[in-house]
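Aim 2 progress update. The chain analyzed this quarter is reproduced below.
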Amino acid sequence: MDHILRLASSAEHASAADAVAAVRPEGPLAIARPHRVRAAAAWFRAKFEGEIFYAVKANPSAWALDALWAAGVRGFDVASENEVRLVAERFGSEAKLAFMHPVKSRRAIQRAYHDFGVRTFVTDTEEELEKILVETGGAKDLTLIVRLAVSNDGASLPLSQKFGATGEEAVRLMNRARRATEDRMGVSFHVGSQCLRPMSYRAAMQDADRAIIRAGVVVDIVDVGGGFPAIYPGAPIPPMERYMDEIHQAFEQMRVAQNAELWAEPGRALVAEAGSIVARVELRKGGALYLNDGSYGNLFDATHVRWPYPVKHIRDGAASRAKLAPFSFYGPTCDSIDAAAGPFLLPADIREGDHIEIGMLGAYGVAMASRFNGFGETELAVALDTPWPTLYSEAETPLAAQAKAKRGKDKSAL
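Predicted C-alpha cells:
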C-alpha cells in the first residue's frame, strides 16, 4: 500500500480545502487526521475494560499506526505475513501481535512464529490447528484462540458465512486447543461489520459461554472481536457507551470466564473518522460526475458497500451558492462497474476541475487501493480539522485535556 500512497507535503493544513490549494494534486488526495485516531484510541482505552488489538487491515498506513501507538495502543490484530512484518519492524518487540486470520499459509505461520515472535494464533478448524502446531515445531508457548460462529443479525455488513466453528466441531476444537498448549487458550467471535445493535455482543458472549460449558474447558481469553461502528450519515448509531456496558455486563455473567482476560479487535471504529479522500471532477454528464478516483482506487467501500458517505464540495475561489442536487460517481478506469450510484448531494453547478471530499474513509479507503488500469497513486496530506460528526468527543480524552492545558499555557505566555 505504501508504494501507492505518497506524502505530498509535510505541512499540516487547516482543512482538506487548504490542502488542495497548497498541494494542487493531480491524482486523488488522501486526507489524514491523526488527532482523530488518537481521540478514538484514547476513548477506547478509557472505556473498554480489557486489551485492545487494532485490526491493521482497516488502515495499515504509517500515520494511522503511529497515531495509535502514540495513544498507547500496543496490541495489533494482524491477518497476513506482510501485516506481521509491518508492525513488528515498525514497533519492535513491545508490540503485541495476534495472528487472527482463521486460515493462514504454512509459511506465514512459520515466519510469524520463528522470525517475528508471534505467539497468538486463531483457528476455527482442527486442520488449521494442526498446521499451527506443525509449523511452530509443536511449540507449547502458544496462545490459541478458537473462533466461534455467532449471529450477525445486528450488522450492516454480515461476516458470518466464511469463518467460525459451530456445534460439536467447536467443542472438539476447544478441547484439542486446550490440550495443545501449556500457555493460554481462548475463544473469539465476530458479530459483523458496522454492528448497530449493542445487544449483539451480549448474545454472542452468551453463546460463547454455553459453548465453553459444553466443552468443559477453562478459557483464559474472551475476545469479542470487531464490528464496532463508525458514524456514517443517516444511520443512527447507539452511544458507544452502550456497547461497552453490554460487553462488560455480559463478561461478568460468563460462568466459566471469570478469571479470563477480555480482548477486542476494533478497526473501523478507531480510524474511520480520521481519513477522507479528495477526488477531482474530470467530466460532468448531467447527473453523473467522472472522478479521478473510484472503486479500484480509494473508493471501494464508498462504491460497493453503498453506505451514505458524507461529501463536501471544494472549488477555487468563492464557494458555490447553488442548491444541492443528487449525483452519481464514475471512477477513472474503463471498467463500467467502477461506479457509485449514490446519490451524493452536491451543488447543482458543480463542474470540471472542482474537487469533492468524501469523508469517513479512514477505514477501508487507501487500504484497498490498487493500480488497476494504470491509476491508483494517491498523495497524502494532514489536516487538523474535525469536519464530520464524531463518536468520540475530544473533551472526554486525556490527550484532549493535555492539549487544552498546553493551549492555556501558550496563551498565558503571550
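Residues 199-215 form the longest helix (17 residues). The chain has twelve helices and 19 strands. These observations will guide the mutagenesis experiments scheduled for the next reporting period.
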